[in-house]
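Researcher: Please predict.
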Amino acid sequence: MPKYVITGGPSVGKTSVLNELAKKGYRVIQETAREIIDEQLKKGVGILPWKDPITFQEQIAKRQMRMEREIKKEEIVFLDRGLPDGVAYYILHNVKPPKKLMALSKKRYAKVFVLDPLLQYTSTYYRKEDEKTAKKEHKLVIDVYERFGYKIVRVPPLSVQKRVDYILKRI
């Protein structure tokens, strides 16, 4: 069954949409970056995106690939970000993305849903970007997926339930 990506810049509502999809019984893979940040913060030291963005992205790519390998072929799965998001973050930090990540980012997902930004931007403990940087990241993520040839479905800033309905009507 297909893998669908839910993506966009920071603070666009991805987690809320994915949580609602999970409540409806869909398999959801939450954002790898947040898991790694939480693990590293518990250790008190470690690899964090605001300290070492490149090593952090390497860890995300490894974990994302492992998690995607574990997906059963018969399931419909929604992912909080996909491998091309990692490519976008390398580019954002002016670093050439690894060849393996570039190769693995192609033809992986059935469809990519980009959540358009909400009316109000909010930073969090795991997303420290300012609004200007968040907008730049959002545009870059879209550009990268398009360069890889993915069909992008833009999801407007509606209520969580309406966004979920919008997505489900388009899978």
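Model: Helices lie at 14-23, 32-43, 53-69, 83-92, 99-104, 131-147, 160-168.
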